[in-house]
Predict the 3D structure of the following.
Amino acid sequence: FRSFTDADAAFHRAIIAGAGNAPALKSYDDLRIHLHLSRLFIDRDQHTADTRRQHHGIYRAILAGDGPRAAERMREHLNESKDLLIGKPVAPPARRRVKSGNSAKEALRT
């Protein structure tokens, strides 16, 4: 689980850093420990395969230079993560899943 959370944090941090928004990056860095602790202490399934699938969609949109699609995929990902955190039911994904693995590269691989 630790390797997944490390890869997840690195993915989000890289996107924020790439946006060049220093205040947002500082906010993310300041909140990251709280996000990590919430995963450890809230009795919820982690849905790592869904997260990897979502990250893959965000990554592909960024690589394609499609900012609006990347933003929409990120909004979907953050909203679903929030819903899972508070225990709100989440609809099953309609898109294909990315094979699970332990590294950030695997999470983003096509």
